[in-house]
Amino acid sequence: xxxxxxxxxxxxxxxxxxxxxxxxxxxxxxxxxxxxxxxxxxxxxxxxxxxxxxxxxxxxxxxxxxxxxxxxxxxxxxxxxxxxxxxxxxxxxxxxxxxxxxxxxxxxxxxxxxxxxxxxxxxxxxxxxxxxxxxxxxxxxxxxxxxxxxxxxxxxxxxxxxxxxxxxxxxxxxxxxxxxxxxxxxxxxxxxxxxxxxxxxxxxxxxxxxxxxxxxxxxxxxxxxxxxxxxxxxxxxxxxxxxxxxxxxxxxxxxxxxxxxxxxxxxxxxxxxxxxxxxxxxxxxxxxxxxxxxxxxxxxxxxxxxxxxxxxxxxxxxxxxxxxxxxxxxxxxxxxxxxxxxxxxxxxxxxxxxxxxxxxxxxxxxxxxxxxxxxxxxxxxxxxxxxxxxxxxxxxxxxxxxxxxxxxxxxxxxxxxxxxxxxxxxxxxxxxxxxxxxxxxxxxxxxxxxxxxxxxxxxxxxxxxxxxxxxxxxxxxxxxxxxxxxxxxxxxxxxxxxxxxxxxxxxxxxxxxxxxxxxxxxxxxxxxxxxxxxxxxxxxxxxxxxxxxxxxxxxxxxxxxx
Length: 562
Fold this sequence. Notes:
Structural class: alpha+beta
Largest sheet: 5 strands, mixed
Mean pLDDT: 82
Number of strands: 21
Shape: elongated
């Protein structure tokens, strides 16, 4: 009995089969996963970046070099690496561009921290120094940014064009960046300056033609909806029309409620049929009497309604998509009606010109010269579906950049110039700090150099040679080299500010802060617990399911009749 007294009982905390991993090996494993993910998108950075072809299980093919799109489609399962997917998507939602930059920076911060972790440095020391370095980097970016405030309207437009062109420079449509930059600036200029809501910029895709066949509609354009007989007899163009927007069906509908009608006289049957016809004719007559020449509805307008409007020289379209309906309402000043009773002039909208135009193989309804015009539509043309999809993503990034530049009118020099200058400032600061923090801030500064290095690698230049030139320029005591970045055309260095390679300061600020936060979050995790059995959705519920009242199904419950 005595030996048994000294035995410690086994303590079981977690379910059998639970996978736990902790300590330094776990942290290094997480860092390796994030580095592997960053290496996936690394080659897409910059104007000479490569594209990725992603083929999903449904057979859908996507070709893109947009960091956020690639991250979304990769379907990452590693719990730590998912953090990088999240920061990429948040960068896309907040700023619109710099999605690849933020992932590469986070991966590089972790790569630089890995040797310290393996040597036994406590992750908290690294996190503290990284946060301090991040604050210094943000202050330096703000100090180096150039304000566009107080510039004239033409000058400001010119500056916005430069920002849009820089964003488009690294996209698939870079060959036509001047054409599309102008289009993006014009589209954003149409919006309400107080909100700059990008939902009011519609992008419609039509396969066929070349990129140069794309055009901007200063108003609303949407694809011709499904139409019935009689549609071709309707007029296809109006000047200064009145526009009525509805949210009701204009179709002959049989009684829905399974109503039962008992007749004592068969001749009365015809009056019931006539009542249904009278209801729809009454609705159509009220629409025509309102003075509207164009009737749009979210719901269907049937063949009877189409022919009725055609006979009276009106244009109608049913099943108009909700977002297009909202933009027509915003642009023309019309209000969407849920009834046709008491329609007055105040609910009707107007525009200078309405026409139906053939674009490629599709027909489009165009509303231009709208008095309330706080909306625009870009009609994109291109050879293949994948190409147009990528062009749309590129334009979305450029539109976001122009919008951000209008709201926060500060720009910095691109092409890795800002990264090199911040890196130099952090190195100088590190020399003034005693202790281990000096090493960590130095490694943070070295990580920032990954952007110019990757730009060189992707363009096929010798990164070591170019980086040495950049370090020499940025180390000049008079500060004349602070705007020098990578010249991807010649393989040398160039003053990117003078070369108009600009990006909004907000892109850089958001990228540095998000990447640092993600790196610090991953460094602070020292244990991962995974319960494999809970991964099956019904695994936990199954064993106990038959134990309650349902468990008596097979036998008889108490008090049941024999």
